[in-house]
Amino acid sequence: MPLAPVKPLVAIIGATGTGKSDLAVDIARRYNGEIINGDAMQLYHGLPIITNKITSDEMKGVPHHLLGRIGLEEETWTVGRFVENALEAIQDIRDRGKLPILVGGTHYYTQSLLFEDILADQSGPTDTPTQRFPILDEPTEVILERLREVDPVMADRWHMNDRRKIQRSLEIYLKTGKPASQIYEEQRANRESSPNADSPDSATAPGLRFPTLLFWVHASKDILNPRLDARILKMLDRGLLDEVQSLSEFQRTYEAEPGIALDQTRGIWVSIGYKEFIPYQTALSSGQASASELEKLKKAAIEKTQAATRQYAKRQLRWIQIKLLNALFGAGQKHSLFLLDGSDLSQWEEMVLRPAEDITGSFLSGNPLPEPTSLSALANEMLVPKRDYDLAQRPDLWKRRTCETCGTVAVNENDWKLHINSRAHRRRVNGSMKKDKNRKNGRSKNGEPPEADDVDALEAYQVSPDKEAP
């Protein structure tokens, strides 16, 4: 007789604009569920258009949790704080006999919640479930300096502007009392010494916290991108510019007192759909720009917002294809993820809704699940990791390099190769070669003698021992 899973969880992932929220609501209504938000921007109060929150009508009476929990002046939750609050919500939902359903596009939140993670869960001698670390709210340079003191390996691992990762590495040390680099190294050693070390389903990999069923709602790029572009235009029709104005007014009011300033390099202030419209909003508020100038600024803002949204969807897809799939394979859970092809909205019920409801029913009943790759040709193609390792689990590949030509900092081998093969790098190298030729002829680019301190960046790049030739 089939055994129903104890403490089941359903998680819905995918790029923005693929219909994750709609599917979550349908499954919740069918199986007595409640929904937990896993989107970092939707944690903020208000701004339903900029953050693309689900509307009351779209909720169809299904309770939603972790929406609108942060003030506009606050920083986005750390991973640890999100996991703590999400676990509380899951327990509350279960205590009332309901099915918890996680949905959202911030996939580093999702993955940290789904997997048993000693980096997040292990408690140091002074740690408590509700303990906060004020330093994590400090400016990035302050957090980085503290990280250098306690874990120089991880401090050197991240780019100086990558606040989230710097913050996360310090949070791990504060919670566990051990440097994250040491924990990663111990995990790597355990995997290599395991009898199953050569297996993608190595038993030493972190497992899922709960019996979990995952749905990946996917749409092909050539279909999703026009859909995302159109969504930005719909957001404008719904009042996006009013929210941009309200955010700007909030900033002015909040900063009215001397010595108070909002950090607009993080949190809601870097949300897609706000920062792109700042030049237009500023010109509009000044009252000095002509109608043609305003129209030009508005068009540029729309195009930037559309491009940023497409890039965000691409990053979400890469996270799933590299990090999440590797984590599932490593935990022996590759049969827990089902890709649903949502490319053709006219076939939503046939390709997405009906399979998801049937698979959820089998999962909750403890019945056998179909082979995930059998659902569609797209599933068969996509349910394989894009790369056979997760860089976060490979400290041996962490190698910080600085391009002497461009000044670009790469923190791993993959980023370095991407940079030296980029068009921007090649242009700069060619420019350096031309400058070098002029210098050898005794003239600078503008015909003047070269400055004595004008260093040949290309030569420095070529002779530096830790660099590879383009």
UniProtKB/TrEMBL annotation:
Catalyzes the transfer of a dimethylallyl group onto the adenine at position 37. InterPro entries: Dimethylallyltransferase, IPP_transferase_euk, IPT, P-loop_NTPase, Znf_C2H2_sf. Gene3D superfamilies: 1.10.20.140, Classic Zinc Finger (3.30.160.60), P-loop containing nucleotide triphosphate hydrolases (3.40.50.300). The lineage of its organism: Eukaryota, Fungi, Dikarya, Ascomycota, Pezizomycotina. SUPFAM superfamilies: beta-beta-alpha zinc fingers, P-loop containing nucleoside triphosphate hydrolases. Belongs to the IPP transferase family. Signal peptide: none annotated. It comes from the Eukaryota. GO terms for biological process: tRNA modification. It catalyses: adenosine(37) in tRNA + dimethylallyl diphosphate = N(6)-dimethylallyladenosine(37) in tRNA + diphosphate. NCBIfam families: miaA (TIGR00174). GO terms for molecular function: ATP binding; tRNA dimethylallyltransferase activity. Residues 425-470 are annotated as: Disordered. This is tRNA dimethylallyltransferase. Keywords: ATP-binding, Cytoplasm, Nucleotide-binding, Transferase, tRNA processing. It is an enzyme of class 2 (transferase). The keyword Cytoplasm applies. Its EC number is 2.5.1.75. Pfam families: IPPT. One of its GO terms (cellular component) is mitochondrion.
